[in-house]
Write a structure and sequence with these properties.
By secondary structure, the protein is an all-alpha fold. The protein has 9 helices and no strands. The longest helix is centred in the last third of the chain and has 26 residues. The two termini are 35 Å apart.
């Protein structure tokens, strides 16, 4: 494999990352992601194409909009950079398996989008999960139909685990997390097991750190769990089999 493929996919990832920020902003607000040009969220002015180049435009403008000179959040170039890196990583990890590359790119795009919406609005939109899961099912049906039963079982198991948690502690776990876990099972299959473990471990560590820092009052502080699921999902996709093999070789 030459460097051309991951570099090309990284450039595509930066552009997709820019689009995902639009999706994360508009979908929770019931705005169309197809119609209408990008506009400044502060003054509403239309953003010119040359000011909408991923990463580069933010650097050139020094983090301020050309129209009203208000600060532009660093989440935009950060998201574009992260998606670029993830697209390159997926390409390297699954090089030679076009179907798995496509599935991986769709999966990380979903995880980034729901992470943004959960961090900003504390919601994981059904529209994003449904559309991306439908795309994933179509891809799997074409490239690996024999894995559908395993993926269905993984979706049921992962979502069932969080559903029980949501019933036991409704203030700490939402149904959006349950649906996201189901989508992760669909994309990952058995690799959703290490993904869920990583998500739960990361969430627990952050929760403990907040309690240590803020005391008993921190117990009432709501923390979106979607980003932790996304972290686990990415780890499961890129290293899930290796983690499972490590566990089997170590404990069996």
């Amino acid at each position: 494999m030459t460097l051309a493929a991951p570099i090309f996919l990284a450039l595509c990832g930066a552009m997709i990352g820019s689009f995902l920020t639009v999706v994360a902003y508009r979908v929770p607000r019931a705005e169309s992601i197809i119609g209408g040009r990008s506009h400044c969220p502060e003054c509403g002015a239309q953003i010119a194409a040359y000011d909408n180049v991923p990463i580069f435009s933010w650097l050139v403008l020094r983090g301020r909009s050309r129209c009203c000179h208000r600060s532009i959040s660093a989440r935009y170039p950060l998201t574009e950079s992260v998606v670029a890196i993830l697209f390159a990583a997926v390409t390297v990890r699954f090089w030679g398996d076009v179907g798995q590359v496509v599935l991986g790119l769709v999966f990380v795009s979903m995880l980034v989008a729901v992470t943004l919406t959960d961090l900003e609005r504390r919601i994981i939109p059904n529209k994003i999960l449904l559309v991306v899961s439908a795309i994933g099912l179509v891809v799997v049906a074409f490239v690996d139909p024999g894995s559908l039963p395993e993926r269905a079982a993984a979706a049921a198991g992962a979502s069932g685990l969080l559903f029980v948690a949501a019933l036991a502690y409704p203030g700490g776990m939402g149904m959006g997390d349950v649906k996201l876990a189901a989508a992760m099972g669909l994309f990952l299959g058995v690799e959703v097991i290490p993904a869920m473990l990583i998500a739960l471990l990361a969430g627990s560590l952050v929760g403990v750190a907040l309690i240590v820092r803020g005391g008993a009052a921190a117990r009432k502080q709501a923390i979106p769990f979607g980003p932790f699921l996304a972290l686990g999902g990415m780890a499961g996709m890129l290293a899930g089999h290796a983690l499972i093999d490590l566990y089997v070789s170590t404990f069996t």
